[in-house]
Amino acid sequence: MTYTPPLTPAEAFDLLLAGNERFVAGAPQHPSQDAARRAETVSEQRPFAVLFGCSDSRLAAEIIFDRGLGDLFVVRTAGHVAGPEVLGSIEYGVSLLDCPLVVVLGHDSCGAVAAARAALADGVGTTGYVRDVVERVTPSVLAARAAGLTGDDDIIDEHVRHTVDLLMDRSRILADNVAAGKTAVVGLSYQLADGSARMVTTRGLPAEAEAA
C-alpha cells in the first residue's frame, strides 16, 4: 500500500491539504488511480481520512483533494446532516480502519442551508424526507442568527462547527480517540469558485498543523 498507518492526525491533514493545493493550482497528480493501485486495494483498504461531506455534486472528495482509490473513507449526506448511519460509518472508519483524521466538509451556496434559512424566514417548508434534512440544519441557522451572523459564509461555518460538535458529543468512540491523540476532527469549508478548502474548526489537531 502507498500509506502505512498509523499516520499522525497532523500528517494525515497535511496530506489532504497538499492534494487540495494541487487541485486549486490546476496541477493535480491523480495519485492512486491506476491499475496497479486497483490491484493493490483488492484485499484491504487503508484510508488515511474519513471525509464526511455534503452530497452536493460539486464536492467530489477524491477530485478536490487529488486522491485516489483507498485513500479516503467517504460519507456524504445532503447538508452533511448526521444520523445513526452516518455516526456508525464514521466510527467504522476510526475504530476498524484506524483513520487518524475525520473531516467535516461544508461548502458555500449549500442548498440545505438555504432551504433552512428560507423556511425560517417565510415559513415555507419542504415535503417528504427533505423536510428531515432541513430540520436537522435549522439549529445551525438559529445558532448563527442568535450570534448575529447573517452572511452566507458565516452561517455555513456555524453549520460546520455544529456538525463537528454533534459528532464529538454523540460518538464516544470518536471523542475517546481524539482525547487519546489518535484522531483529529477538522471542519472545512469548500469554496466552489476557486476550489479551496478553508479551515473552520478543529478538535485534536496540534496548533502548528492548524496554522499551516
From TrEMBL:
KW Hydrolase (keyword) present: no
Cofactor: Zn(2+)
EC main group: lyase
Catalytic reactions on record: hydrogencarbonate + H(+) = CO2 + H2O
SMART domains the UniProt entry points to: Pro_CA (SM00947)
One Pfam family, short name: Pro_CA
GO BP term (any one): carbon utilization
Residues where Zn(2+) binds: 54, 56, 107, 110
Cofactor note as given: Binds 1 zinc ion per subunit.
Domain of life: Bacteria
Molecular-function annotations in GO: carbonate dehydratase activity; zinc ion binding
Keyword field: Lyase, Metal-binding, Zinc
Enzyme Commission (EC) number: 4.2.1.1
Function: Catalyzes the reversible hydration of carbon dioxide to form bicarbonate.
PANTHER family noted in UniProt: CARBONIC ANHYDRASE, CARBONIC ANHYDRASE 2
Protein family per UniProt: Belongs to the beta-class carbonic anhydrase family.
The protein's name in its UniProt record: carbonic anhydrase
Taxon lineage: Bacteria, Bacillati, Actinomycetota, Actinomycetes, Kitasatosporales
